[in-house]
Structures are given as C-alpha cells and as structure tokens.
Amino acid sequence: MDIILEKPHGERVIIILADSRSNYLSNREWFINVLHGKDVVLCHTSALECLGQFPGYINENQIDVYATAREPYENINWYIVDDFTGIMIVDIAGLRCTSFNQTINDMLRDYNEIDEQSLIQALAGFYYRNGGNFSGLNIEPQYTGQFEAIRNWAIEYYNYE
After folding, report:
1. Is 119 within a domain?
2. How confident is the model at residue 5 (pLDDT cuts 50, 70, 90)?
3. Mean pLDDT over all residues of the chain?
4. Range of the domain at 137
5. Which residues pair with residue 98 across a beta bridge?
6. Which pLDDT tens digit goes with each residue over 56-98?
7. Is residue 5 domain-resident?
8. Is the dihedral of CA 149, 152, 158, 161 positive or negative?
9. The pLDDT of residue 74
C-alpha cells in the first residue's frame, strides 16, 4: 500500500507500506506474503510471533527484520547487518527467524528500542513451560544485568489476582 503525501509547493512524498496484519488470518501468513522473496530474517517481536512465543497485536503493521540492505517499506523495522553469519536462524514454514535464545539476547541488547511487552510475555511463557525456572535459556554474559533487571516481571506476569 502506498500513501502519497502532498507537501506545500506541490512536492509529493510517497511512503510505501507493506500490508498490515489485519488483512491475514495469522502472523505467519502475513509474514510469508510481505517478505516473500526477500533476503531477511525475522527478529525481535516478529521472531517471537513466528516462533509462537508471542501472539502479536490486533491491527499490527510493524515487522522487525535483519537484512543486508534496506528496502523502501516504512512499516518494516530494518536492522541492517553485513551478513547473517553468527545469527542463530531457524526456518519455520519457509520463514527464517532468529532462534528463541538469539531473539531474547538480541532484545536484551536492544532493550531501549524493542517492544517490552512481547519480551516479558515470551519470557513468562518460557518460565512457566519450564516448571518455574529459566533453565535452558542461554543469556549471554553481557546481557545478564538487563535480564536480571526484568526477570521478576516475567515471573510475576501471570500472577494477578
């Protein structure tokens, strides 16, 4: 979908948007359609959605990806990398996304720029699926401080009265 904005003095600015989530039955269907043929890896909240660790939002229109080059879509958050070496990638139904551990570490690294709700909810789900502990979650040493700062939020996430 393209949006054309008219500026003073007759200038036109075209903003190119990829389809939004509301046009699809599932996040994966949306990702497959929007990202078909693109050399990208879903990351951050979009990876959590693809991995089934976060349900997403109603009328969502933002997609987070690692890519080697930026494309003109304004509603895709482009995290530009030289290549995908060193990124733990899984393939789910033809979609490439970061592994759960990679995603959590990336979100801890980029904490001030990410969707905190998706991170906390994914950590809470992991914690309760693992019998009330975080064993099996491999937090890189440089991100343990950030993890420790939010871990109790994840533990308490589903404990409401």
Report:
1. yes
2. very low
3. 86
4. 20-156
5. 89
6. 887 778 899 999 999 888 788 999 999 999 999 999 988 999 9
7. no
8. negative
9. 79
* Residues 73, 101, 59: CA angle, nearest 5 degrees: 35
Residue 54 has pLDDT above 50, yes or no: yes
Using 50, 70 and 90 to split pLDDT, how confident is the model at 36?
confident
Q: Is 10 contained in some domain?
A: no
Residues 18 and 46: beta-carbon distance below 8 Å: no
42 found inside a domain: yes
Q: How far is it, in rounded angstroms, from Cα 56 to Cα 48? A: 9
CB atoms within 10 A of CB 86: 8
- Tell me, letter by letter, the H, E, C secondary structure of the chain: CEEEEECHHHCEEEEECCCCHHHCCCHHHHHHHHHCCCCEEECHHHHHHHCCCCCCCCCCCCEEEEECCCCCECCEEEEECCCCCCCCEEEECCEEEECHHHHHHHHHHCHHHCCHHHHHHHHHHHHHHCCCCCCCCCCCHHHHHHHHHHHHHHHHCCCCC
User: In terms of DSSP bridges, do strands 76-80 and 63-67 run parallel, antiparallel, or are they unpaired?
Assistant: parallel
Total domains present in the chain: 1
Q: What is the pLDDT of residues 7-29, one digit of tens each?
A: 455 555 455 555 666 667 777 88
Length of the chain: 161
